[in-house]
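dumping this here so i dont lose it
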């Protein structure tokens, strides 16, 4: 149990070493949170709502794309400020699961509220605000969810468990995408008489997402339990930040390469987030995929990503998470450059390169989570995963900024009206930087001091 004066200390037993219950039923129930919460990432921020919000209904494509980049960056700043303090408070209070429940329900409500964003320029700000707020809540909920992995995994299984959770998320994303596409978007008149007039098909899909999140996260929220903690003195915001800084100094003195990993993962996870945030936008704005084609691509991409992430989870337990991360980043940089060079290759080019990209995004994310989970001391999961979220979000403006800046640079260099495809170079730059910083980081087994 950590106290007010305890810095993060990696010399003792980790939370994973204290867990002996990793039954398949508990793992599946835990992974259902990934499955249930996935519509926010897959449908809302990637393949449907973000594409809708950057369409001509809301203004010029370059303008709406850059507006989305700015709002994404601002949401990341809020996450950076809140994540470690809220994670630390969850640890101290022992109410990680209670907080996760509350945040999950808020995320469901925010997702459903996107129904009110009509296809008019005057609704762009409302859409960006709701999307940004949902991103903040989703990230904070993810901190608490990640902190519960020690309830269902051991050191021997953490790679597979983490990969299985990510994979379940992708597969859940497939199903909800196909449901909204065939029930509302593709038919001239969908279920309940829904049509595309006033983008009602897209907007009703947001209600489905809210319902999905609220319903399918229930198994995880039932199985997971808050662990009793001795009564802890409440502290204010300023003291909380002081304790966060103390934890960082403690990590720096006891396990410096863990700090290096947090910095490296901040860079490459921001690049991975950029792939998700702007991939579908590129599909529509650069490669000419229709809204329906983007959804079909999203379903195929989630199948590939889900299976690849589960397979790489076993590889993670075999060769270690660092090697998995480096393999994935190298592949993503190469494929990103090919997308830029072949941007005029049409829809078939995007299908091939886009699906190849999805092979490596999920495994890198899952391996990053398992890398850190192997290190966290008992009683520090929320705080360390909070730092993990914060270090990622401290630089979360980089991918959106780089994406927007390279679009502007492309317009300056080429004089073309639509230079959206230049944005991929900004994402590639961030991924390459993450790869470079990750190279010298020690393997996870060498982080714990003796």
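and the seq i came up w/
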């Amino acid at each position: 149990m950590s106290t007010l004066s305890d810095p993060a200390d990696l010399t003792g037993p980790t939370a994973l070493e204290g867990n002996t219950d990793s039954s398949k039923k508990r793992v599946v129930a835990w992974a259902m949170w990934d499955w249930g919460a996935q519509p926010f990432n897959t449908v809302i921020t990637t393949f449907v709502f973000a594409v809708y919000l950057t369409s001509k209904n809301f203004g010029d494509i370059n303008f709406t794309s850059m507006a989305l980049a700015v709002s994404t960056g601002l949401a990341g700043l809020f996450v950076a400020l809140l994540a470690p303090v809220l994670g630390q408070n969850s640890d101290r209070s022992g109410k990680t699961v209670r907080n996760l429940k509350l945040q999950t329900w808020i995320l469901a409500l925010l997702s459903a509220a996107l129904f009110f964003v009509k296809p008019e320029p005057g609704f762009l700000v409302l859409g960006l605000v709701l999307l940004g707020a949902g991103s903040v809540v989703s990230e904070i909920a993810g901190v608490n969810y990640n902190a519960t992995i020690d309830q269902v995994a051991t050191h021997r299984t953490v790679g597979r468990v983490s990969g299985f959770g990510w994979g379940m998320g992708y597969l859940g994303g497939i199903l909800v995408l196909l449901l909204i596409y065939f029930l509302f978007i593709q038919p001239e008149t969908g279920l309940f008489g829904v049509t595309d007039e006033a983008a009602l098909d897209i907007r009703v899909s947001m209600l489905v997402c809210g319902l999905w999140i609220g319903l399918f996260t229930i198994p995880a929220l039932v199985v997971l339990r808050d662990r009793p903690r001795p009564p802890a003195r409440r502290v204010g915001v300023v003291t909380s930040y002081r304790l966060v800084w103390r934890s960082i100094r403690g990590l720096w003195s006891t396990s410096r390469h863990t700090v290096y990993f947090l910095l490296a993962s901040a860079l490459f996870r921001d690049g991975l987030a950029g792939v998700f945030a702007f991939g579908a936008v590129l599909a529509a704005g650069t490669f000419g995929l229709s809204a329906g084609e983007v959804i079909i691509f999203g379903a195929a991409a989630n199948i590939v990503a889900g299976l690849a992430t589960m397979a790489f989870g076993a590889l993670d337990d075999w060769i270690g998470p660092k090697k998995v991360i480096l393999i994935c980043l190298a592949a993503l940089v190469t494929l990103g450059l090919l997308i830029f060079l072949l941007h005029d290759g049409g829809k078939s080019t995007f299908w091939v390169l886009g699906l190849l990209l999805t092979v490596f995004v999920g495994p890198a994310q899952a391996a990053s989570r398992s890398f850190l989970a192997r290190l966290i001391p008992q009683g520090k999961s929320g705080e360390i995963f909070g730092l993990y979220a914060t270090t990622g979000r401290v630089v979360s403006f980089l991918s959106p900024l780089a994406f927007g800046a390279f679009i502007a640079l492309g317009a300056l260099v080429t004089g073309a009206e639509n230079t959206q495809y230049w944005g991929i170079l900004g994402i590639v730059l961030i991924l390459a930087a993450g790869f470079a910083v990750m190279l010298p980081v020690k393997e996870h087994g060498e982080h714990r001091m003796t």
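The chain has one domain: 16-223+237-446.
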